[in-house]
């Protein structure tokens, strides 16, 4: 039985086993992934970035609340929850309130189609990649509503900058992802992962990144575009503190500020997860079989899949944090030049070469 067929068998047996458990199997166990997302965004993402930035700047970071400052993030969350909900007098109340909600939904709704393992996916849509790209784009509407509704010039400038940046960088990002979709022949994210499993035990050598001479370019373009879409440095001009205070969320505080903040961390993981699914085998083990040492076989399975998927994605979240605290911010003109005159043309080249390669050469 091929690995792809085995994966479908795992999925079916897992689903049947869950349905037999009743309420626990149908609601509580599937909610584990949502709990992980909430824990990551609420705690590990924030605490991790504080510690990583402190390490890079030769300081300690949070140390006072709990051992190694482990409870500092929880203390901050409690503070934000207890803050008074203030809406500026001159603001458009409807847009001001609904903006953070749209940003939050746009960031977290895309998690529904992420394949965490062969037997663990929220919604196995045949247009999963299209859905993920589309629903993440919803953030633009929330950002514009937040910036416009604040009735503040800094917020409006930040919102317009952010919308221009996200809409521009979605073009090279989408073209780069189409390269992976062409190689798999599907928009289903579970199928895209299974297309990177040949059953020969070669591990990472079966990933799309190593199966085409141009895949590395699409991989790089999507990662750079993903940084811009999440407003991370060096593309953080929408919230440039030295120019716009905090950009489109200057007027926000309390829970509304926390929601916007958490949506950014959710988007960081989402961008990393899509990158892993499209080019790095998703939940597939990277370890190859070496003679009698069957590393690939030993590290494959439903539970191992979730481990590899989350580990690979968190590595690229770490890289995003690393770049934020390393690179200086680009100017607006430099940001647009990079998108329209560098990334978009090279993304089109990668698309055409991938199409030619898949049509006339195929996989190595």
UniProtKB/TrEMBL annotation:
<feature type="transmembrane region" description="Helical">
    <location>
        <begin position="335"/>
        <end position="357"/>
    </location>
</feature>
<keyword id="KW-1133">Transmembrane helix</keyword>
<dbReference type="InterPro" id="IPR018086">
    <property type="entry name" value="NADH_UbQ_OxRdtase_su1_CS"/>
</dbReference>
<keyword id="KW-1278">Translocase</keyword>
<keyword id="KW-1003">Cell membrane</keyword>
<feature type="transmembrane region" description="Helical">
    <location>
        <begin position="128"/>
        <end position="148"/>
    </location>
</feature>
<feature type="transmembrane region" description="Helical">
    <location>
        <begin position="21"/>
        <end position="46"/>
    </location>
</feature>
<keyword id="KW-0520">NAD</keyword>
<keyword id="KW-0472">Membrane</keyword>
<dbReference type="GO" id="GO:0048038">
    <property type="term" value="F:quinone binding"/>
</dbReference>
<feature type="transmembrane region" description="Helical">
    <location>
        <begin position="207"/>
        <end position="228"/>
    </location>
</feature>
<dbReference type="GO" id="GO:0009060">
    <property type="term" value="P:aerobic respiration"/>
</dbReference>
<feature type="transmembrane region" description="Helical">
    <location>
        <begin position="257"/>
        <end position="281"/>
    </location>
</feature>
<comment type="similarity">
    <text>Belongs to the complex I subunit 1 family.</text>
</comment>
<dbReference type="GO" id="GO:0016655">
    <property type="term" value="F:oxidoreductase activity, acting on NAD(P)H, quinone or similar compound as acceptor"/>
</dbReference>
<dbReference type="GO" id="GO:0005886">
    <property type="term" value="C:plasma membrane"/>
</dbReference>
<dbReference type="InterPro" id="IPR001694">
    <property type="entry name" value="NADH_UbQ_OxRdtase_su1/FPO"/>
</dbReference>
<keyword id="KW-0874">Quinone</keyword>
<keyword id="KW-0997">Cell inner membrane</keyword>
<feature type="transmembrane region" description="Helical">
    <location>
        <begin position="169"/>
        <end position="187"/>
    </location>
</feature>
<keyword id="KW-0812">Transmembrane</keyword>
<protein>
    <recommendedName>
        <fullName>NADH-quinone oxidoreductase subunit H</fullName>
        <ecNumber>7.1.1.-</ecNumber>
    </recommendedName>
</protein>
<keyword id="KW-0560">Oxidoreductase</keyword>
<feature type="transmembrane region" description="Helical">
    <location>
        <begin position="94"/>
        <end position="116"/>
    </location>
</feature>
<dbReference type="GO" id="GO:0003954">
    <property type="term" value="F:NADH dehydrogenase activity"/>
</dbReference>
<dbReference type="Pfam" id="PF00146">
    <property type="entry name" value="NADHdh"/>
</dbReference>
<keyword id="KW-0830">Ubiquinone</keyword>
<feature type="transmembrane region" description="Helical">
    <location>
        <begin position="301"/>
        <end position="323"/>
    </location>
</feature>
<comment type="subunit">
    <text>NDH-1 is composed of 14 different subunits. Subunits NuoA, H, J, K, L, M, N constitute the membrane sector of the complex.</text>
</comment>
<comment type="function">
    <text>NDH-1 shuttles electrons from NADH, via FMN and iron-sulfur (Fe-S) centers, to quinones in the respiratory chain. The immediate electron acceptor for the enzyme in this species is believed to be ubiquinone. Couples the redox reaction to proton translocation (for every two electrons transferred, four hydrogen ions are translocated across the cytoplasmic membrane), and thus conserves the redox energy in a proton gradient. This subunit may bind ubiquinone.</text>
</comment>
């Amino acid at each position: 039985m091929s690995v792809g067929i085995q994966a479908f068998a795992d999925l079916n047996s897992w689903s049947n086993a869950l349905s037999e458990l009743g309420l626990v199997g149908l609601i509580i166990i599937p909610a584990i992934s949502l709990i992980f997302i909430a824990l990551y965004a609420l705690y590990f993402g924030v605490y991790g970035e504080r510690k990583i930035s402190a390490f890079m700047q030769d300081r300690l970071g949070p140390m006072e609340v709990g051992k190694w400052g482990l409870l500092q993030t929880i203390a901050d969350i409690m503070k934000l929850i207890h803050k008074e909900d203030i809406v500026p007098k001159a603001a458009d109340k409807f847009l001001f309130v609904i903006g953070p909600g749209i940003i939050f939904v746009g960031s977290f709704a895309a998690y529904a189609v992420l394949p965490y393992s062969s037997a663990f996916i929220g919604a196995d849509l045949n247009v999963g990649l299209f859905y993920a790209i589309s629903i993440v784009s919803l953030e633009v509407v929330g950002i514009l509503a937040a910036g416009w509704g604040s009735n503040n010039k800094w917020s409006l400038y930040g919102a317009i900058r952010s919308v221009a940046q996200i809409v521009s960088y979605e073009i090279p990002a989408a073209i780069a992802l189409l390269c992976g979709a062409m190689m798999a022949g599907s928009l289903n994210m579970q199928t895209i992962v299974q297309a990177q499993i040949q059953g020969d035990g070669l591990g990472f050598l079966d990933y799309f990144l190593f199966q085409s001479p141009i895949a590395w370019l699409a991989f790089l373009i999507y990662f750079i575009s993903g940084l811009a879409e999440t407003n991370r440095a060096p593309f953080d001009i929408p919230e440039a503190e030295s120019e716009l205070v905090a950009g489109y969320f200057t007027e926000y505080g309390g829970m509304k500020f926390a929601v916007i903040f958490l949506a950014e961390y959710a988007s960081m993981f989402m961008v990393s997860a899509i990158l892993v699914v499209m080019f790095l085998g998703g939940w597939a083990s990277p370890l190859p079989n070496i003679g009698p040492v069957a590393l690939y076989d030993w590290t494959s399975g439903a539970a191992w899949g979730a481990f590899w998927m989350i580990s690979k994605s968190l590595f690229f979240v770490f890289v995003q944090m690393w770049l934020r605290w390393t690179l200086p911010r680009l100017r607006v003109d430099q940001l647009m030049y990079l998108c329209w005159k560098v990334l978009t043309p090279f993304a089109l080249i990668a698309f055409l070469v991938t199409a030619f390669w898949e049509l006339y050469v195929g996989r190595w």
